[in-house]
Design brief:
Shape: elongated
Strand order of the largest sheet: 1-23-20-25-17-16-15
Helix content: 10-25%
CATH topology: Jelly Rolls
CATH class: Mainly Beta
CATH architecture: Sandwich
Number of domains: 1
CATH superfamily: Jelly Rolls
Strand content: 35-45%
Structural class: mainly beta
Number of helices: 6
């Protein structure tokens, strides 16, 4: 199983009538996926992701660059319109009608995650095209435009849309928006980087999906970890890093992941990554649960065991081989992951 997808190289790029482009990833073209995926989406100036809904998936997105306006209609009592800029997230509940509109002066680059490895889409023009003409007449009488309109069967995804100069371009207090900068990070050190997540405990509206952002300075590594109850889909949003998955029966071979590459890590799989580049590395991680259990640090969890147990485990291999010493004697029994490690 190949857990790395070099997205820009391996996935055909879909371009939409000068409105934007997308790398569309499903389980069919990234078989490692289980229960989660992400689209790398660019919405160009004065363009939009057409109003649509996902019958089988919640959506959680991250603004890599640019500025977008989100419009959500879930029910008469649950509507929202708000704007987000780089470094912020949005959440769309399953089957809620919504659009993403570029209201900035540059292309908006987005990482759009879904709580399904095969998300379905129904775009507004597809929906109206499928309605019988007699029902369209009821909606639209006495006008003839909708009766005569013939639309599309396949979802158009992106389209041009002029920006309304009267739109209030402010970040609203909508619960569907989330700013990483407004919540306490799990870890932050200006010389090393930061780790912060949006999960149900700090973003209560979430369902079926959550997100983590890790930023690593040069020569900084992620503490080797695993997540005990959720798979993880990493999307590289800046720089590059050397990833390694430790899987029983396989030689651990490091691999490089660069901008918009995907790395899928199955539930319970030990993994780590190192920023070996010259610029800051950033990755977004999507979990197909709203409330995943916290990460398990290899060093912290191993340090919990009594000294004799650790020493025997590391130096006695089923009695067939023995080594002297205690390679883990310096481990401290901390309670939380160190998150980031400075390499020597």
């Amino acid at each position: 199983m190949d857990y790395l997808l070099r997205t820009l190289k391996d996935i055909p790029l879909h371009t939409f009538k000068k409105a934007g482009q997308a790398s569309i990833v499903y389980k069919s073209n990234f078989p490692a996926l289980e229960g989660v995926t992400c689209y790398a989406l660019e919405i160009w100036e004065e363009s939009m992701r057409l109003p649509h809904w996902h019958p089988n998936a919640a959506e959680l997105g991250y603004v890599v660059s640019g500025q977008i306006e989100i419009i959500i209609w879930r029910s008469p009592g649950e509507t929202a319109m708000y704007t987000l800029s780089a470094g912020m997230c949005w959440f769309i509940p399953q089957a809620a009608l919504h659009s993403l509109n570029n209201i900035g002066d540059e292309k908006a680059v987005l990482a759009v995650g879904f709580s399904s490895d095969d998300p379905l889409h129904v775009d507004l023009p597809v929906a109206f095209n499928g309605i019988p003409v007699v029902i369209r007449d009821v909606y639209n009488a006495p006008h003839a435009e909708l009766r005569q309109w013939v639309g599309v069967v396949n979802n158009p995804l992106l389209g041009k849309c002029p920006v309304d100069s009267d739109v209030k371009r402010v970040i609203t207090g909508s619960p569907y928006g989330f700013d990483f900068a407004a919540v306490p990070p799990l870890f932050h050190d200006p010389s090393m980087g930061s780790v912060v997540w949006g999960v149900k405990s700090n973003w209560n509206i979430l369902q079926d999906i959550s997100v983590l952002r890790a930023r690593l300075k040069k020569n900084i590594a992620r503490d080797p970890i695993w997540y005990p109850d959720a798979a993880t889909l990493y999307v590289v949003t800046k720089g590059s890093a050397e990833f390694q998955l430790i899987i029983a029966g396989r030689d651990p071979v490091p691999f490089k992941a660069s901008y918009l590459d995907y790395v899928f890590v199955p539930v319970g799989t030990l993994h780590t990554f190192i920023n070996t580049g010259d610029e800051e590395f950033e990755t977004i991680a999507f979990f197909p649960k709203a409330d995943p259990l916290p990460e398990v640090s290899l060093s912290v969890s191993a340090a919990f065991f009594p000294n004799d147990v650790r020493r025997a485990a590391m130096t006695q291999f089923n009695g067939a081989q023995s080594q002297s010493g205690d390679p883990l004697k310096q481990l401290n029994n901390g309670r939380v992951s160190p998150y980031l490690l400075r390499l020597k």
